[in-house]
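[User]
Protein folding is very new to me. Any chance you could explain this protein sequence and its structure tokens? I have pasted everything here:
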Amino acid sequence: MDPAIKRTLKTFNHCLIPFFDPRRFVAAVAALPWFLRDWARYARTPGAEPIRLRDLYPQLHDKIAATPFDAHYFHMGCWAARRIAAARPERHVDVGGQAIFVGLLSAFVPTTFVDIRPLGADLPDLACEAGSVLELPYGDGTVRSLSCLHVPEHIGLGRYGDPLDPLGTRKAAAELSRVLAPGGDLYFALPVGAPRLCFNAHRVHSPAQVLEMLPGLEPVEFSCVDDGGRYRENADPALVADADYACGLFRFRKPGR
């Protein structure tokens, strides 16, 4: 299929999903017979609890052959956590990432989570602060271990209540570079491939554009998740330069000590 037609169909599908997902509807209808059959069988099983109509909670999409997962977020979280664990920083700061990532990360390194939507969690070694990636609550060169994972591509599109700005991703990258300490590490992830704007969800940048956004930092590693969902460690950026929606996993270091 022509890539332009494929992308148009994908866009049409994404526009429909928030209102009506025909795939989930068809799957639910197909699953109803086994749900009703299991209901009847369970009710006849010795020792079974009463099944009351008001307590029914049909789950019709989980009888599948393999456990599903989001390849970007799964591999990205594992990639960052393994490297942060190996580096053993005194404290790590994550900006706008997944709540479950920072919660698990705090189990082995004290972690501060910064987001425009404060996280109302109370865990040992997890501090939660309100703040914007465009104006972080840190002085110049003060954060030695920093991550911003699958966040920069959203900045400036208004999706999360942030101000509209075509330069949002670049400004976020500049702010992260500002607060990173000399000798410190930045773990930076976002969609990579053929550059485009998917309003108002995200932007896709080429790996070369990402490197250009952070001129004051030294690239230490590039890994990625390709269009097929495969994790590629220490990959050639050219592998995903023309991808549709890959995930670039960049590790940068600020020169100095």
